[in-house]
Amino acid sequence: MSLLNEFKAFAVKGNVVDMAVGIIIGAAFGKIVSSFVGDVIMPPIGLLIGGVDFSDLAVTLKAAEGDIPAVVLSYGKFIQTILDFVIVAFAIFMGIKAINRLKREEAVAPEAPPAPTAEETLLTEIRDLLKAQQDKQP
């Protein structure tokens, strides 16, 4: 029974739950970014470079013989993956930059200093009275 209690305490800790939520949201965000790159960004880039689809670029190292498939070096898929990575990294950079700007704007608003407590106010008055008495003495 102790093992079950330990597992329950571990599984419902705030950090574990927060991490799980972060992973789930990250996976969903990854799908959004992949769709954005593949469906929105890459078609105009392909159009700008003459309609070249990088994923089709390949070199056949050895032709197919009978039941043995061809040996193909698919360097286009590699180029496409690198390009996708650069676009995703830039999109994430811009998103984080915007979030950081919002955080800085929130932090810029200075907080008013806390009002002195009644005890501090009384001590300040006593200090001022003692200083006034010292100034009167020759």
TrEMBL record:
<feature type="transmembrane region" description="Helical">
    <location>
        <begin position="78"/>
        <end position="96"/>
    </location>
</feature>
<keyword id="KW-1003">Cell membrane</keyword>
<dbReference type="Pfam" id="PF01741">
    <property type="entry name" value="MscL"/>
</dbReference>
<keyword id="KW-0997">Cell inner membrane</keyword>
<dbReference type="GO" id="GO:0008381">
    <property type="term" value="F:mechanosensitive monoatomic ion channel activity"/>
</dbReference>
<comment type="subunit">
    <text>Homopentamer.</text>
</comment>
<dbReference type="GO" id="GO:0005886">
    <property type="term" value="C:plasma membrane"/>
</dbReference>
<comment type="similarity">
    <text>Belongs to the MscL family.</text>
</comment>
<keyword id="KW-0472">Membrane</keyword>
<keyword id="KW-0407">Ion channel</keyword>
<dbReference type="InterPro" id="IPR001185">
    <property type="entry name" value="MS_channel"/>
</dbReference>
<protein>
    <recommendedName>
        <fullName>Large-conductance mechanosensitive channel</fullName>
    </recommendedName>
</protein>
<dbReference type="InterPro" id="IPR037673">
    <property type="entry name" value="MSC/AndL"/>
</dbReference>
<comment type="function">
    <text>Channel that opens in response to stretch forces in the membrane lipid bilayer. May participate in the regulation of osmotic pressure changes within the cell.</text>
</comment>
<dbReference type="InterPro" id="IPR019823">
    <property type="entry name" value="Mechanosensitive_channel_CS"/>
</dbReference>
<keyword id="KW-0812">Transmembrane</keyword>
<keyword id="KW-0813">Transport</keyword>
<keyword id="KW-0406">Ion transport</keyword>
<keyword id="KW-1133">Transmembrane helix</keyword>
<dbReference type="InterPro" id="IPR036019">
    <property type="entry name" value="MscL_channel"/>
</dbReference>
